[in-house]
Amino acid sequence: MSDLVHPFTRPIARNRGTLPGWLAALATVTIWAIWMIATRHAVTHDLPPIAVGLLRFAVPALMLAPVVWRRGLFPKGLRPLVGLGLLGSGAPFFLVVASGMQFAPAAEIGPLLPGTMPLFVALIGWLVFQESIGRMRLVGFALILVGVVCIGGSGLLQPEAGAWRGHLLLLTGACLWGIYTHAYRRSGLSALHAAGLVGVWSVLLLMPVGVPKVASLLAEGLAGPVVLQALLQGFLAGVVGIVLYGLAIDRLGPSRAAAVSPLGPVLTALIAIPVLGEIPDTPALIGLVTATAGVLLASGILSPPPLPAGESKKTRDPRLTD
Fold first, then answer.
1. Which residue has the higher pLDDT, 11 or 99?
2. Mean pLDDT of the chain
3. Do residues 196 and 139 make contact, with C-beta atoms less than 8 angstroms apart?
4. Which residues of 46-71 are buried (b: 16+ CB within 10 A; e: fewer)?
5. Residue 192 placed within a domain
6. How many CA atoms are closer than 13 Å to the CA of 175, on its beta-carbon side?
7. 281 in a structural domain
């Protein structure tokens, strides 16, 4: 909205559009939780990770193929390292994460995957791009680390259970997503074009092995699980989730849209109890609560918004803050 709008009317215009944004943000977090549960169930029951990965990217690749076709499979000006950073969030990310979900219980997936993503984003930004980190966010990252130690500690104390393998793979996936975040910021691509590129290239990478796997699953009479995963992975998470998250950011801004992200690990743990029969133990519950609090602080929503150049705290109109 233009800065020329009268200050007394600006808050009313903005607040009128926040309800759809909050609903979109809540729906997005719910979809993320469903995606984690669906993936955990699939890779521990009927479907191998590579087959689930193909289903995950085939639907958005087909739906976004016109965007990729118009704007290019090899976008001009896209640096090779940035392109690799984008593609790392596709098939490599999914295979690493899905493999980790074979070992780690659902209650531990939320804090270790979406819970540590902001930590890796900030760490990469600080180490590579010399980005500063505020004190409140540092406290949040410290809490995330404490939560990870609480969750990972139980797995290390019981190495025969193999959960530590899942922990390492999930943290690797979170790091890949952190790389993607910085790559996307520097790619100059639209959200749809980037999602389409990731989908198309992921399908091309997974097809040689994934197509025979899916065909064999259909031949074994597993058409039901295959179709269900195509809907949950491809359409719900791969298309609807992306659109809703974009709507949430448009209506609320990045900080407020991130305010509901701590609900993701909680919803995942709660849904896993009736669906997967997985009840978190005490260390996992402590880690879940601690990491969730850390995500809340690390998202920056409790920090004051930055002041524009030339403006001081005394001159800012409190009615204009986000």
1. 99
2. 79
3. no
4. bbbbbbbbbbbbbbbbebbeebbeee
5. yes
6. 7
7. yes
Residue 28, domain member (yes or no)? yes
Helix or strand holding residue 305 (H, E)? none
Q: In this predicted model, which residue has the larger pLDDT, 281 or 54? A: 54
Q: What CA–CA distance (Å, rounded) separates 215 from 322?
A: 51
> Largest Cα–Cα distance of the chain, in whole Å?
70
Whether 2 is in a domain gets the answer no
Whether the per-residue pLDDT at 299 is higher than 80: the answer is no
Read off the amino acid at residue 308: P
* Burial tier of 243 (Cβ tally within 10 Å: 0-12, 13-18, 19+): middle
- 19-35: per-residue pLDDT in tens? 888 888 888 888 988 98
Helices (H) and strands (E) in the chain, counts: 15, 0
The SS3 call for residue 34 is helix
Whether pLDDT at 307 is above 50: no
- Report angle CA 34, 36, 39 to the nearest 5 degrees: 105
Question: What amino acid occupies position 182?
Answer: H
Residue 40 buriedness (CB in 10 A; 0-12 / 13-18 / 19+): buried
> How far apart are alpha carbons 294 and 162 in whole angstroms?
26
Round to whole Å and give the CA distance between 244 and 30.
Answer: 11
Cα-Cα end-to-end distance for the chain: 13
Amino acid at 165: R
Going from the C-alpha of 1 to that of each of 4, 11, 250, 251, 315, the distances in angstroms are: 8, 11, 12, 12, 20
Cα–Cα distance, 148 to 109 (Å, whole number): 10
Question: From the CA atom positions of the chain, what is the Rg in Å?
Answer: 21
The four Cα atoms 95, 175, 270, 91 give a dihedral, to 10 degrees, of -20
261: containing domain: 15-305
Q: How many domains does the chain have?
A: 1
CA distances, 284 to each of 87, 159, 289 (Å)? 32, 16, 9
